[in-house]
Amino acid sequence: MSDSPEYYAIRQRLTLGVNRYEIARTGADFEGGEQFAFAQQKRMKLKEEVRFFTDDTKSAIVFTFKARNVMDINSVVDVFDAEGASLGTFRKDFGKSLINSTWYLEAPGLPELTAREASDGKAIARRFGVPLRYDFIFRDPEGNEAASVFRKFGIRDSYKVTVKDTRYDERLILAMMVALDSLQDR
């Protein structure tokens, strides 16, 4: 695990018919920073897919994620680099998510991470339609925090992402973070 965390800001762009996200590598204040990727979710696809480009010209792909099956309650989502090599997978645990949304992230050669909503109370309230933001903490099997994402409400959703365990490929972590926005409430 690295001594210094990495920080990212994810901001959703307001557009009709397509989910778009700007991802920037920032400092601990989550302000400014250099653009890391621009993501666009294809709508009306039988299998969920999001492509991450270097910028909004969409001229070069950095990484992608794609569901193995038509999105169902236990579908596995693969994350690939620009050349198509696997970076890892993530999936939602439907049963546990009835109470508190629970996701699993797997990377080759590293322990599986479990991501759960940070507050059980907020998670349960959200099940009853209370419009609360959701925050997720990613933990390794020993319970150590590996990453977190905190959602900020506004005209457009934005997220503060902290990666404490930098052994995990940032592209895999960021793909999972965008999925939390685009797939969470399904």
Walk me through the structure.
This protein is mainly β and 186 residues long. It has a single domain, classed as Alpha-Beta Barrel (Tubby Protein, Chain A), CATH 3.20.90.10. The N and C termini lie far apart (33 Å). Strands 1-2-3-4-5-6-7-8-9-10-11-12 form a twelve-stranded antiparallel β-barrel. The protein is built from three helices and twelve strands. It is globular, with a radius of gyration of 15 Å. Helices cover 14% and strands 42% of the residues. It has helices at 94-97, 120-127, 170-183; strands at 6-13, 19-26, 34-41, 49-53, 61-67, 76-81, 86-92, 102-106, 113-117, 135-139, 145-152, 158-163. Strand 4 and strand 5 (61-67) form a beta hairpin. The mean pLDDT is 88.
Short description:
The chain is 14% helix and 42% strand.
The CATH architecture classification is Alpha-Beta Barrel
Average the pLDDT over all residues and give the rounded result.
88
Query: CATH topology, what is it called?
Result: Tubby Protein, Chain A
Helix-strand sequence: EEEEEEEHEEHEEEH
Helix content: 10-25%
Tally the helices.
Answer: 3
Low-confidence stretches: none
Strand residue content: 35-45%
